[in-house]
Amino acid sequence: MRNLYALAVAGILLALAPLALPTYGMTLLTEALILGLLAMSLDLMVGYTRLISFGHAAAYGFGAYACGWLLLHTSLPMLAAIPIAAAMAGLIAIGVGWVCTQASGVSFSMLTLAFAQLLYAVAYKWTSVTGGSDGLAGIPRRPGPFGLHLFATRDGFYYLVLAVLLAAFLFCRALVSSPFGAVLRGVRENEAKTRALGYNTRLYKIAVVAVSYGFGALAGALYAPFAGFANTELLFWLLSGQVLIMVIVGGTGTLVGPILGAGFFLVVQHQLSNYTEAWALFFGLIFIAFVILAPEGIWGFIRTRFRRAAPETEYRRGVAGAR
Amino acid sequence: MSIPAFLVTESVNALSQAALLFFLGVGLTLIFGIMRIVNFAHGTFYMLGAFIGYSAARLGGFWFALAVAPIAVGIAGMLFELGLLRRLYRRDESAFLMVTFGMALVLTDLIRLGWGPEALQVEPPGAFSGVVMLMGEPFPTYRLFLAVSGGVVALVIWQFLERTRFGLLIRATSQNAEMVHALGVDVNLVRSAVFGIGCGLAGVGGVLAAPLVTASIGMAATMIIDAFVIVIIGGMGSFPGSLLGAVLVAFVQVFGEYYLPDLALAFMYLVMLLVLVVRPGGLLGREA
């Protein structure tokens, strides 16, 4: 119950944000929520299944390009283009997952990177569809269906992002606490044992890759009409690395943590770059300090502060120690 | 240009590219073999080598820089290992990911503060600044020198790993660190040394790359992923694998650029994908 209260309070506070924040703050917050969705989707793989994807930018960039293309070249409303882009990514990710789960460990990470970089190369060269190095520009927030105008404004779009994030969070939370999620955790802790119990772990891994990429693409599909453009940077490996850092900074295997991690990452980056030229220096020092001072991430830090029992966390530490 | 001449010059060109990749890859793979960590800061140590090389070359010429800069970079790497990484050996890989990623950011900014944001030109040594005739075609001498030095360094490392006591310790530690420890060897010392050597080799790569591509802030980001790819293709932790991967990737890059320029960006990753699907542990890797 406490969890639900906390969620309701967070939801209400976020819903009231447009009343309190200036334009700049709202833009930053919207972007933070979009990145939060992306980081949360990656957490399904990294935190719950221990599939360290180093190519999550593929999902984000694909979603952004697909949604942007649909909005530019068809008359579909934004509310239809966004889920279509996400579903397409989820379907394609079944194939990607099938290939990548042939390997495990670092090789898995590198296969996901390979797919992301291939997509990057395609986006860079396939100028007639992707706009090449310029990317897609002038992506509209087309209203509808039935003349629904609500989400085209700045605050309206923010509420759309917030609603999507909340829905995705509730879905993912249900997913990880379902029997399906239990099998994923089994894969994380001991895949051979889970297989010996009769589960086809490969199928579960492919499924989680598809879901994770689908939600990652959903974040990208929101970003395209938010920013009004999609470019190759959204597919570059640097973004994959940054999202992974957001997940770890926030706390892996917690869903909430990565959302906080994304917000922290974005806000600190913006604030530091306002104050100092050498923001990356302090940014890097913050990461290093995090690893040493708050090994369980932001969310783990908050939880231990409030003396909430975290049996899962202790269990995980035991596993890491035994390595 | 005749076809044989084209093939020879492009092959030497590819080998010179392979040499640079190899200097990075061999350090990455040795460090992974011993410590099971992926060093994200490796490209930054390569860049540090180029910048220290620039300053040292202004003081005492190119050869002085080639002697001094790798040692300085190696010491910097060893300090990083001693000061930070050593505390984290009981933690999982995400801790190393964060710390080395953070270190890459910190070091990049320190270099920018120290040397400024501009790309710095380093002159190649006088003897190698011109062109030689290769199969009747002019070819930059410096690239030939790079290809040869890559071969020489590979030979030296191979002999070092196979013939010396310390090389034996490195191979043993990568196979079974606990056993080596039980036999009375200070494994931590081996780890620090390997990390230092790996970073020093990246420093060699940096000094040697500087006359070709200038010392610049962007040079780390373009090289680190290529270096990862060659290490993965060859097999994480395998020294001959890093050599094979470097040569393979360099040839794919150089000839891909020529025959199918539209796909050149993607080629390296296609190769990696193919290799990993067929052999998930890499061409010469141990684990499947």
Architecture overview:
- Chain A is an all-alpha fold and 323 residues long.
- Chain A has one domain (2-322): ABC transporter involved in vitamin B12 uptake, BtuC (Orthogonal Bundle), CATH 1.10.3470.
- Chain A contains 14 helices and two strands; from the N terminus they run ααααααβαααβααααα.
- In chain A, helix 1 packs antiparallel against helix 7 (154-177), helix 2 (23-49) packs parallel to helix 7 and helix 3 (57-73) packs across helix 9.
- Chain A is globular.
- Chain B has a single domain (3-278), classed as ABC transporter involved in vitamin B12 uptake, BtuC, CATH 1.10.3470.
- Chain B is built from ten helices and two strands; from the N terminus they run αααββααααααα.
- Chain B has helices spanning 3-35, 42-83, 93-115, 141-163, 165-175, 177-182, 187-213, 219-234, 239-259, 264-278, and strands at 131-134, 137-140.
- Chain B has a two-stranded antiparallel sheet.
- In chain B, strand 1 (131-134) and strand 2 (137-140) form a beta hairpin.
- In chain B, helix 5 packs across helix 7 (187-213) and helix 9 runs antiparallel to helix 10.
- Classes of the chains: A mainly alpha (323), B mainly alpha (288).
Task: Describe this structure in a few short sentences.
Chain A has 323 residues and is mostly helical.
Instruction: Determine Rg of chain A (CA atoms, Å).
Output: 19 Å
In terms of DSSP E residues, the strand content of chain A is under 5%
What is the typical, i.e. mean, pLDDT of chain B? 89
Largest sheet of chain A: 2 strands, antiparallel
Structural class of chain B comes to: mainly alpha
Task: Identify the strand order in the major beta sheet of chain B.
Answer: 1-2
Q: Percentage of helical residues of chain B?
A: over 70%
Low-pLDDT residue intervals, each spanning 5 or more residues of chain B: none
Large-scale geometry of chain A: globular
Quickly give the structural class of chain A: mainly alpha
Give helix % range of chain A. Answer: over 70%
Order of helices and strands of chain A: HHHHHHEHHHEHHHHH
Give the termini distance of chain B in whole angstroms.
45 Å
